[in-house]
Amino acid sequence: MANTELTANIREKMPLCATLGIDAEKISAEEVILSVHWVEELCTSNGMLHGGAVMALADSAGGAAAMANLPEGAVGTSTIESKTNFLGAVREGKVTATSRPLHVGSTTIVIETEVRNSEKLVAKVTQTQTVLRPRS
User: Fold this and answer.
1) What per-residue confidence (pLDDT) applies to 11?
2) Residue-range domains of the chain with CATH
3) CA dist., res. 41 & res. 52, Å (int)
4) What is the largest CA-CA distance in the chain?
5) pLDDT tens digits, residue range 5-60?
6) Helix, strand, coil content of the chain in percent (nearest 5)
7) What are residue 124's phi and psi, to 5 degrees?
8) Is 45 helix (H, G, I), strand (E, B) or coil?
């Protein structure tokens, strides 16, 4: 279930989340859960949710998970690599991305994200985030 305060925060920090209608359910260092509802405006042919919308949801969740795990002195992260396996189509309902850190280092953070439509796994994403530090 969407958390109004977390949703407002994630949409402010990542304006694309507002554009896509992404809601935040949980944001912690251990796990981030974001979701989006199927809407026709986010579809490709045959009423299927566009793969780019699925990837944007996963990247947003992964980015939030990386931000929740920033090492001391870091100011942010940026995705430098992302691998998506699409496992099924979404034609209705809510799509939920659950991100968890696999590796938290001083220069990179690796996140794994499962994207589900109800209980059905529709995508698996692994991404690497570079840790951004202030410029001297």
Assistant:
1) 97
2) 4-132 (3.10.129.10)
3) 12
4) 51
5) 999 999 999 999 999 999 999 999 999 999 999 999 999 999 999 999 999 999 99
6) 30, 45, 30
7) -130, 130
8) helix
C-alpha distances in Å from residue 28, one per residue of 12, 19, 25, 66: 17, 23, 10, 10
Q: How many residues does the chain have?
A: 136
What the block records as the tokens of 89 is 């189509």
Instruction: Output Rg (C-alpha) for the chain, integer angstroms.
Output: 14
Cβ neighbour number for residue 128 with a 10 Å cutoff? 18
Distance from C-alpha of 1 to C-alpha of 34, rounded to nearest angstrom: 10
Residue with tokens 């410029």: 135
